[in-house]
Amino acid sequence: PVRFEQTSCDKYAVGYINYPTCDHCNVIDHCSGHATSVTSDPANKLCTDCVCTDSWTGSSCGSCAAIYTQADCVQCAEGHFTDDVCTLCTVKDHCSIHASTVVPN
Fold first, then answer.
1. CA distances from 9 to 3, 4, 5, 68, 75 (A)
2. Counting CB atoms within 10 angstroms of each CB, which of 26, 50, 52, 82 has the fewest?
3. What are phi and psi of 57, to 5 degrees?
């Protein structure tokens, strides 16, 4: 079968882990559903190298920086405005120090 490296089925093929069940590495199970691809490391019996989508990070694409909404890791979080890096709104930087607070819209 394609899951195994050799006809004797004693090693799994690239993209599979957990001999002898030979589970297929996939972005849903091994990258939190937030990746475009994943590869396997047969020597260490792990699915590794998730290529994360949007702003997801971490080895399994399960982390999202606080500057983004945690639900989708795409939109800027409250208190940040949409630019290339979701900049934090501040009185000093965005109100010429002529306000006591700033509320992004």
1. 8, 5, 7, 45, 46
2. 82
3. -140, 175
